[in-house]
Amino acid sequence: NRFCAASSNRTGFLCDDRETCVPASHVCNRIQDCSNGEDEQEKLCGDLPSSLPGYLVFHCSNPLYWIYADQRCNGMNDCGDCSDEMESLASCPPCGSEWWSCTPVLYEYCACIPKRLCRDSIQHCASWSDEYIC
User: Could you tell me which residue ranges the LDLRAD1-like C-terminal domain spans (predicted)?
Assistant: First the structure.
């Protein structure tokens, strides 16, 4: 079993050394993160996503799209339809302390925007709450 928890408790891939945990999205990215290169081997990366172990993959609600499991619930609209942030399959926690909950006007976000975007004189929430309340 190669499942491990990478930084911030994100899903990862355990290298042969049984110590190095590579974040899921760094597997099959053409950069060897494991000392033996097992995170880039043909048997793992030959037919994405079906060649990957299931724990490394999140299937978007649109069956044509998938993302790496560590991209689920990261606040970004990685699937393009927010299914990685809002669908019951994603089961994401509510917005964290660094995020503001609102209906974003930018396609990039789903249900929260980074608080660093608050009060910057640019509307990011449909309700303008990022400029007046946040």
Answer: 93-132
pLDDT at residue 88, as a whole number: 86
The C-alpha angle with vertex 67 and arms to 109 and 59, in degrees rounded to 5, equals: 105
**Contact between 72 and 65 (Cβ < 8 Å):** no
Domain extents for the chain?
A: 1-72
Residue pair 118/100 in contact by the 8 Å Cβ criterion: yes
Structure tokens given for 40: 């880039």
Task: Write the pLDDT tens digit of every residue in 23-55.
Answer: 999 999 999 999 999 999 999 999 999 999 999
Which pTM does this prediction carry?
0.88
Task: Name the residue among 41, 44, 36 with its Cα closest to residue 16.
Answer: 36
What is the pLDDT at residue 15?
98
Give start and end residues of each alpha helix (H) in the chain.
Answer: 42-45, 129-132
